[in-house]
Amino acid sequence: MPFYLLVILGILFGIGFGYFVQRAGLCFAHGLGEIYVGRGKRIIRLFLVIFIITSVGFMMSAYMSPACGLKPIGQIRGNGFYNLLSGILFGAGIALCGGCILGTLRQIGEGNLMFLVVLVSFIPGMALVVYILNPVLEHSYDVEKLLLPQMFGVSAPYITAALALGAIIWLSAIRRKKPANA
Amino acid sequence: MHEFTSNESRETNDSQGQNEATSNRASGFDQDIAPLPSALGGPSYRGSESRVVSTTHSKVGAKSRLRAPVYMASYFAILNVVMYVTINKFWIGGSSFLPMIGKLGDGYKFLFAFLVNIGVMIGAFIGAYTSGEFRLRAPKKADMGKAIVGGILIGMGVTVAPGTCTTAFVTGMPMLSVSSFLSAAGIFIGAYMVYSRTLGRR
Fold first, then answer.
1. Do B79 and A125 touch (CB under 8 A)?
2. CA–CA dist B29, A8 (Å, integer)
3. Of A69, A95, A99, B128, which has fewest CB within 10 angstroms of its CB?
4. Which residues of A touch B121 (CB under 8 A)?
5. A143: which DSSP letter?
6. Among candidates A27, A58, A108 on the partner chain, residue whose Cβ is nearest the Cβ of B81
7. How far apart are the first and last CA of chain A?
8. pLDDT of A99-138, one tens digit each?
């Protein structure tokens, strides 16, 4: 597929993502805060719905197209230490500025110009790691790409089915619970 | 600056006597869910809670109001899968900003992801504009410090272990990628550390 066509399709998909994210009020920074104060039902429900559909969809994609199927996203660096570290830095950052990647893009689309400041502030952080820290650190750790099925030695459909089933049960349990004062 | 700007618009709508259901659906808050204060000087938790209680008692369209965010999240997930199956690309969050520091990736993969994110902003604008929630808000000086520090931390986080972070929740974990589960655990820890200091004080 020519790159220009890929770009056009990518932007169109992006517009779709942005529209649904805005209408769903999806932001994991906000959601984690809700969980922290014990009111995480909304974000957990949204996450479970996304997880169920996407995990089954990605699993099925292998049967639709040989080029698809499950792929390890990202890399395990330093036996997972750097993944944890990156998560901690990212988690602290999104909690501090009040928007994850989804939330930041959404807020900019909604006209909140403060998140443009957040977006521009990514630049020094990324530059610091990519141009200064990574060249030094890259020699000190192993990089690995791994999926859960490979780690446990179990076929992928079994793991997907188990996780999706667990998510469905959790979702049903959340939907059934009514607030005490309702 | 905070995540609850949709609520601000809802508050405005309420004061103008406009449709509560529309704005409430867009913000994604259910009746039993109160908006949360952000670390950037958002409204206090108790104040926000009382505001929600006072604005969500309309019985008109209550069911659809409750379900709409879930449906929208479903469409989002379906689109995520459709994109992967049709053009063999998936939505990524963090690494997509690498073109801002001159890294376009092999086969322009980061550039492609960056352009998808441009589309996300356009889509969010369309969603906000069509629902009457679009409102230009200038940055507040008081929030600038946290915004910059938060942005720098996000920038560091998405590059210390690329292809993780927010991507973990919408792409990596459903892909059963181990790095995404590790990253998600880190995100919980990092967010907890900040929220315990900021929300805990209120």
1. no
2. 33
3. A69
4. 18, 105, 108-109
5. E
6. A58
7. 54
8. 888 899 999 999 999 999 999 999 999 999 999 988 888 7
C-alpha dist (Å) from residue B180 to A21, A36, A81, B176: 21, 21, 12, 8
Structure tokens, B77: 């997930």
Tokens of A135: 């060249």
Chain B hits for A135, Cβ within 8 Å: none
Give the one of B164, B184, B199 whose C-beta lies nearest to A33's C-beta. Answer: B199
Tokens coding B133: 């929630």
d(CA B4, CA A156): 39
Question: Do residues B169 and B184 lie in contact, with contact meaning Cβ atoms separated by under 8 Å?
Answer: yes
* A29 contacts A90 by C-beta, under 8 angstroms: no
Round to whole Å and give the CA distance between B102 and B97: 9
Q: Which of A8, A22, A60, A115 to mutate to test the interface with B (most CBs of B within 10 A)?
A: A22
Chain A CB contacts of B189 under 8 Å are 84, 87-88, 91
Q: Enter the tokens of residue B107.
A: 């086969």
CA distance B31 to chain A (A): 9
Integer distance in angstroms from the first to the last C-alpha of chain B? 17
Query: What is the interface pTM, i.e. ipTM, of the complex?
Result: 0.92
pLDDT digit of tens for each residue in chain B (202 aa)? 444 444 434 333 333 333 443 444 434 333 333 345 444 444 333 323 333 333 344 545 655 655 578 889 999 999 999 999 999 888 887 788 889 988 888 888 888 999 999 999 999 999 999 988 899 999 888 889 999 999 999 999 999 987 667 788 899 999 999 999 999 999 999 999 999 888 765 5
How far does the CA of residue A112 sit from the closest CA of chain B (Å)?
Answer: 5
